[in-house]
Write a structure and sequence with these properties.
heterodimer; A: 261 residues; alpha+beta; Immunoglobulin-like; 2 domains; three-stranded mixed sheet; 38% helix; B: 592 residues; mainly alpha; Cytochrome C Oxidase, Chain A; two-stranded antiparallel sheet; 1% strand; globular
Chain lengths: 261, 592
């Protein structure tokens, strides 16, 4: 029957592009990313083997058991087989998810080190802003009524608060390589999502909530940050970058920002 | 075997309105649902075609766009907000008015009572009201296209604040979004009526001898789907009412304080939680996936046994698997919210439960292959679609093993990997179930046979077409392609995936064109197809004991008695290779 080879060929073609990595992840830029890729590969191998076996078996029964005028065998099933494949699937699937828990825990359960650099991230329709505390190490007070996008104050920093005088506000994220970073994610209107492929990380940014996200990036470079939660008509162009700099360059950049204030 | 035609004990209504429009007959209502779904699926498919066109031709000027949407496509160029409206309406129409209505309300309405030996549903008036309420919901939904600002753009999941704060969050978020929620609320009401009816019918109206464990698997899936609908739509209805109140009555269930939208301070909302909506929505939304797919599983199981001429492999295991899926389906909604900002510890519980639901799904797949093993497969078009369902279910199910892990979801959430996954399993697998059901039951419903040659051409084009559309979505998802983007040119790393999107769009053109073959086959066969015998497939369940199409009260006043399970094929020692459920306990081979 034609359907059997069709299923087989489809299976081979689909599996080929996964194996050949024709369209693939960018290289990871931290330990978490490496662990992520390992977990992905494990999952791909397990599901890939099941995928190929199951589709080939389907094609095989279609081919082998086509009607030839004879009589079908009579069976109502087999409890032993049933138990076997139920437990095998349970072990495989649960094993996979348990192996991934460390990765999830690393992102969400572990407290960031005390010296992690805090950066406030603001999502709004349809742009990003990032705020650094400045030399005093304190973020200035903000209020909605002081928000002035055109005037460079998307956070609404109160200029009467001395702690806010030295806050640095940037339209793209700049971070030093190899240093722990602690983002504090805010939205002022709808839900957005902070996503950096190379970090293998994303997090929704929800108005009314302050969501922390900690990580470290080890490789210098510029990485794209596309908004990854539908936020309205400009969703597709809500994009910024994350620039990972050497710690020296990062300090220089900060000084420059302060000098320009 | 066959009852004498037109010997109804109960007389059918004779007036046009009572017979065809406000009918109480479950069979007419089933067909009404079917055609409502057919209209909706073509509408939803057209919207997706426009989306696929726009994604790869974002700058294209199409003069009739401007005629259809003078503002949203001024000058013939589709705006991003129009794209998002098409996307929102595509998802909504497909999920609610196709995937929920056709397999359950359409086929279920028509065949549940017959397969369990009942004259009608338990509550015929409720049944009629359920259909017309659904119809009203569809009218309200479609009307959202025609109000100022157009259809909503917040997606079928309608996350607030985007969907709750009104016009300021975007065009379509005014009247369009309000109509959307009203339509969904009406739809919930309709589905609740239907669910109660299905449950009552299955519990109370089974004929003599039709024990629960003798029901065809289709009936089991319709029953479990109805229970899911009863519990799920009740919650969505509540959520919808709260969202409407936030929009029109100034309440703050989902809107927090401190909002600053479109250069305005939103002072009148305080204390709400955007995550509350997501919990309520997905508490419905995940069972909804099973509402869409379970009846397809039932049809597939039923057809594989019929056309392989073998008993279903592990009938009891299949029943327990359906029950397990139904139960677990209510405990996994949080896997849609791993990235939402909810407590990350809860992700552990949701992911383990999600993997658990993979187990009964795997049991089904194994048992389908076990059913085919050693069979004598008759490759009717109906069977081809059932086989296609199994293939798509494997493919779409396995990508869920990635997404069910919160660790891997850290990358894949809201990428095309997700779009590929749910289209494969909830979209096209379910639709293959509908096609299988159509080709299988058409002879009973319309008294004529469909054309098998056209059916097979349609099958192959559709099978290859949907794989061509939805497999590459996984690849571009691995590249990190975000979903719900109307245009990919703003993100540099997406340059490499545009040719893949072009390929998907071409496949979409082919697939859509193939559906014309189906429609031609359907309508041609209704009028001109060869007359159908009582039991064209030599199947065992009760619908194949009565004329095609059945008389008004199904069994012509005779109360059927069931002696056998639903899948007694190729029983050794019996000359005929099937035993009807109503055959005498020790069947004497007889030509029926």
């Amino acid at each position: 029957m034609l359907l059997a080879p069709v299923v087989w060929i489809l299976t081979v073609v689909i599996a080929y592009f996964f194996a050949a990595k024709t369209w693939w992840f960018p290289l990871p830029i931290n330990q978490h990313g490496i662990a992520y890729d390992e977990q992905f590969t494990r999952t791909l191998v397990v599901t890939g083997v099941i995928f190929i076996l199951a589709q080939f078996a389907l094609g095989w029964v279609i081919f082998r058991y086509r009607d030839d005028g004879g009589r079908a065998s009579h069976s109502h099933g087999n409890n032993k087989l049933e138990t076997l494949w139920t437990s095998a699937t349970a072990v495989l699937f649960l094993g996979l998810v348990l192996m991934g828990t460390k990765i999830w825990a690393g992102v969400h359960f572990d407290e960031p080190p005390a010296d992690a650099i805090p950066v406030e991230v603001l999502g709004k329709q349809f742009a990003w802003s990032f705020r650094y505390a400045g030399p005093d190490g304190k973020f200035g007070r903000t209020e909605l009524k002081f928000i002035n996008d055109a005037g460079g104050n998307p956070f609404g920093i109160d200029d009467k608060d001395p702690a806010g005088k030295d806050d640095i506000v940037s339209a793209s994220l700049k971070i030093p390589a190899g240093k722990p970073i602690k983002l504090i994610l805010h939205s002022r209107d709808v839900i957005h999502n902070f996503f950096v492929r190379e970090l293998r990380m994303k997090q929704d940014i929800v108005p009314g909530m302050e969501i922390p996200l900690s990580f470290q990036a080890d490789k210098i470079g510029v990485y794209e940050v596309p908004c990854s939660e539908l936020c309205g008509l400009g969703h597709y162009q809500m994009r910024t970058t994350m620039q990972v700099m050497s710690p020296d360059d990062f300090e220089k950049w900060k000084q420059q920002q302060l000098a320009n204030k | 075997m066959s009852a004498p035609a037109h010997a109804s004990a109960h007389h059918a209504p004779s007036g046009f309105w009572r017979k065809y429009v406000f009918s109480l007959d479950h069979k007419v209502i089933g067909i009404q649902y079917y055609f409502l779904g057919l209209f909706s699926v073509f509408l939803g498919m057209s919207l997706s075609l426009l989306m696929r066109f726009h994604m790869v031709n974002p700058e294209a000027k199409v003069s009739w766009f401007a005629k259809l949407w003078p503002t949203a496509a001024a000058g013939g160029i589709m705006t991003p907000e129009l794209y998002l409206s098409l996307m929102t309406m595509h998802g909504t129409i497909m999920v609610f008015f196709v995937l929920t209505t056709v397999p359950q309300s359409g086929f279920g309405n028509y065949f549940l009572p017959i397969q369990i030996g009942a004259e009608d549903m338990a509550f015929p008036v409720l049944n009629m009201m359920s259909f017309w309420t659904t119809f009203l919901a569809l009218v309200v939904m479609v009307s959202a296209f025609f109000v100022q600002g157009g259809a909503p753009l917040a997606g079928w999941t309608a996350y607030p604040p985007l969907s709750g704060a009104g016009r300021i969050t975007g065009p379509g978020e005014g009247m369009g979004q309000t109509l959307w929620i009203i339509s969904i609320a009406i739809f919930c009401g309709a589905s609740l009526m239907g669910a109660i009816n299905f449950i009552a019918t299955t519990v109370d109206l089974r004929c003599k001898g039709m024990k629960l464990m003798r029901m065809p698997l289709t009936c089991w899936t319709w029953l479990v789907t109805a229970i899911l609908g009863l519990l799920g739509f009740a919650v969505l209805l509540a959520a919808g009412v709260l969202l409407i109140l936030d929009r029109v009555a100034g309440s703050s269930f989902f809107l927090p304080s401190g909002l600053f939208i479109s250069d305005q301070i939103i002072a009148n909302h305080k204390g709400g939680s955007p995550l509350l909506w997501q919990h309520l929505f997905w508490f419905f939304g995940h069972p909804e996936v099973y509402i869409a797919i379970l009846p397809g599983m039932g049809v597939t199981s039923h057809l594989l046994a019929t056309f392989a001429r073998k008993p279903i492999f592990g009938y009891k295991a299949m029943v327990y698997a359906v029950l397990a899926i139904g139960f677990l389906g209510f405990l996994v909604w949080g896997h849609h919210m791993f990235m939402s900002g909810m407590n990350p510890y809860s992700a552990m519980a949701f992911s383990v439960l999600t993997m658990c639901i993979g187990v009964p799904s795997a049991i089904k797949t194994f048992n389908w292959i076990g059913t085919l093993w050693g069979g004598k497969i008759h490759f009717t078009t109906a069977m081809m679609f059932a086989l296609g369902f199994v293939s798509l279910f494997i493919s779409g199910g396995l990508s869920g093993i990635f997404l069910g892990q919160p660790a891997l979801d850290l990358y894949f959430h809201d990428t095309y990997f997700v779009v590929g996954h749910f289209h494969m399993i909830m979209g096209v697998a379910a639709i293959f179930g509908m096609f299988a059901g159509t080709f299988y039951w058409f002879p009973k419903m319309f008294g004529r046979m469909m054309n098998e040659t056209l059916g097979k051409i349609h099958f192959y084009l559709t099978f290859l077409g949907v794989y061509g559309i939805f497999t590459p979505m996984h690849y571009v998802g691995i590249v990190g392609n975000p979903r719900r983007y109307s245009d990919f040119s703003n993100v540099e790393y997406l340059a490499g995936v545009i040719p893949v999107h072009q390929f998907m769009t071409y496949c979409a053109y082919v697939t859509v064109a193939a559906q014309i073959i189906f429609v031609v086959n359907l309508f041609w066969s209704i009028r001109k197809g060869p007359k159908a015998p009582v039991n064209p497939w030599n199947a065992t369940s009760l619908e194949w004991t009565i004329p095609s199409p059945p008389p008004f009260d199904n069994f012509a006043g005779v109360h059927p008695v069931v002696y056998h399970g639903p899948y007694e094929y190729s029983v050794p020692g019996v000359e005929r290779d099937f035993i009807m459920q109503t055959d005498a306990p020790n069947p004497v081979p007889a030509e029926g």
